[in-house]
Amino acid sequence: MNTREAVAARILELCKERGITPNGLSSNSPPAKKALNRKIQSLF
To answer: Number of structural domains, the chain?
Structure first.
């Protein structure tokens, strides 16, 4: 697992623990939401 994959996995783990979605991390910033989704999807 490289650094990018580890970070993406940790983000998803934290979201699951806290009952939020990756979109929830950037709910106040629509452009950031789209960028985050693209980054996470590109890693898997």
So the answer is: 1
